[in-house]
Amino acid sequence: xxxxxxxxxxxxxxxxxxxxxxxxxxxxxxxxxxxxxxxxxxxxxxxxxxxxxxxxxxxxxxxxxxxxxxxxxxxxxxxxxxxxxxxxxxxxxxxxxxxxxxxxxxxxxxxxxxxxxxxxxxxxxxxxxxxxxxxxxxxxxxxxxxxxxxxxxxxxxxxxxxxxxxxxxxxxxxxxxxxxxxxxxxxxxxxxxxxxxxxxxxxxxxxxxxxxxxxxxxxxxxxxxxxxxxxxxxxxxxxxxxxxxxxxxxxxxxxxxxxxxxxxxxxxxxxxxxxxxxxxxxxxxxxxxxxxxxxxxxxxxxxxxxxxxxxxxxxxxxxxxxxxxxxxxxxxxxxxxxxxxxxxxxxxxxxxxxxxxxxxxxxxxxxxxxxxxxxxxxxxxxxxxxxxxxxxxxxxxxxxxxxxxxxxxxxxxxxxxxxxxxxxxxxxxxxxxxxxxxxxxxxxxxxxxxxxxxxxxxxxxxxxxxxxxxxxxxxxxxxxxxxxxxxxxxxxxxxxxxxxxxxxxxxxxxxxxxxxxxxxxxxxxxxxxxxxxxxxxxxxxxxxxxxxxxxxxxxxxxxxxxxxxxxxxxxxxxxxxxxxxxxxxxxxxxxxxxxxxxxxxxxxxxxx
Amino acid sequence: xxxxxxxxxxxxxxxxxxxxxxxxxxxxxxxxxxxxxxxxxxxxxxxxxxxxxxxxxxxxxxxxxxxxxxxxxxxxxxxxxxxxxxxxxxxxxxxxxxxxxxxxxxxxx
Lengths: 608, 109
What we know:
The complex is a heterodimer.
Chain A: E1 7-12, E2 17-22, H1 25-31, H2 34-45, E3 59-62, E4 77-82, E5 89-94, H3 98-103, E6 109-113, E7 120-124, E8 129-133, H4 142-151, E9 160-163, H5 166-169, E10 177-179, E11 183-185, H6 190-196, E12 199-204, H7 215-231, H8 233-242, H9 248-253, H10 269-274, H11 277-283, E13 285-289, E14 299-304, E15 307-310, H12 314-320, H13 329-342, H14 346-361, H15 383-391, H16 397-400, H17 404-410, E16 419-420, E17 423-424, H18 434-442, H19 455-462, H20 475-492, H21 505-515, H22 521-541, H23 554-557, E18 560-562, E19 565-567, H24 571-585, H25 595-600
Parallel strand pairs in A: 1-6, 7-12
Antiparallel strand pairs in A: 1-2, 3-4, 3-6, 4-5, 7-8, 9-10, 9-12, 10-11, 13-14, 14-15, 16-17, 18-19
Chain B: H1 2-15, E1 18-25, H2 29-32, E2 37-43, H3 48-55, H4 59-65, E3 66-67, E4 70-71, E5 75-79, E6 82-83, E7 99-104
Parallel strand pairs in B: 1-7
Antiparallel strand pairs in B: 1-2, 3-4, 5-6, 5-7
């Protein structure tokens, strides 16, 4: 096979077996790689009704045919598992260097099953893969684990480390899996799934290269991609200069920046300036950085006083900052460092903390329960301590470790959890863009701007005319298209930010050139529809109901001010957009894929 | 009724002469225009295009904002939080107290 190595590594941690299975060529054609390949392998292996933190859960990590090539940003791995936070499909994508090195061990994907009786790590080299005891690593943070496993590698090798921190070990439902110390598979709680399997880390080192079928076609795609990335300001210089936090000011201007657990979107100019990308660049930024093969370089390598680290990114900045009424960039950056070290998803942590703050201020959580801690909005002094308490499930942190929905339910006020399907909403208020709102509602993983369709990006930075902010009629088609583009980017193993420069065309040339398979734009559209439908089938089998495709009541009942108007998303608007979305996806009125769609996508037998 | 009438005619008299506009600069436009924001008094009826023309003193500034006489496709101009593409582009009018924000085409998240 060209582009692929043609092998899937299957590791059963219960019985310690390790097997190399052939990659089915038809599966590669139908699912491409990354998110698509991982979803198919996951679906074929897991029982959808399994308890996510039980040995029955399966976690798949997949690469794409572009990984190992010179495709810009083509370094991203994708994880699929059943989420301990949502009970639905968990799907998380990450850059860095690990996925590229994993592929060079000679495998396209890794399927993890079962549960080890003792803490272990998996060591994958060019000659063999083995399960190794990891008692000596249990309890170490992400940075310590990474350094230890790197230093213990055979001489002359520079392995890459993927691991969890204490949060994953402690089965914190918002725990991340991290590579390169600071690049995280954050969303949906994959760290807890690692922890539940007693799996601390996966160390990889390889030297196998992929074969390219049609160099000329491949190179023409590379040239086109490279030219377009240099022509668009975001990918040419803005992300390098400001990082993703460069969005703070713009998102505030369009009344979309969440405040106090999404109670409103009102901030003073002075406050947003304190946490903006412009300010970050002038204060803590030491240098920008990039993932493997990335010319964009949005990473923020920062220093606060004597401590160095990475971040904050836009989502972290806003969810731990303004959404908690905190505008202290130093405190946010420190808390970000700690989340990376202890292995927490910063978006869900910020959303859960904001929920706890609202419950506290409304008197549903007492100061006695928080062991004297003033869990008030604006209290930047508690950020770091709360990260520690959540990661170690210490005292009151144990309740936040369950995520905001379980926290709010515990206090019998689930209405204060700003989640969809149990996943915390990221840093764009849905009332300020109905298209983004519909993306949160219909994302297979719950409220995720990356799996649900990143409407904000293209609506405001790519072409405002294409995606009106408040159109009930156009939002369903627009978000379906954006979701499909996202599915393709995740399945190609490339970065969402390339979407600021181009959509599918250069990728079609690159993917087809590498593999010699037909990955034309129209074929890739079919692939994206197939993946979206398979994710839907899994969720339905896992118990998803139509009423789960919705938003918290706050967004229908409480308005925000957008362009001098009071805006809510009325219930009937939610229902109308949802029905029309099902329609454009080819799903029935209950959100179930129709028989004719299943046939057209070669998903026969997927009826639910 | 009488009071409202008087106030309206006073407003009309002021409006007929000048209006105050606040301009906010973001990302590398802060370096390009040397500041975060600026208040400027303009003749009533000045459009967004007119304002941008007044702001651009150097060739470098004009090159970053205009493509010939059109707004460069990589520039985002907002009037009170609304992209002028959704209004009348460079012909978008302005009222006293409006805020105009100027961004390069930005990305992230």
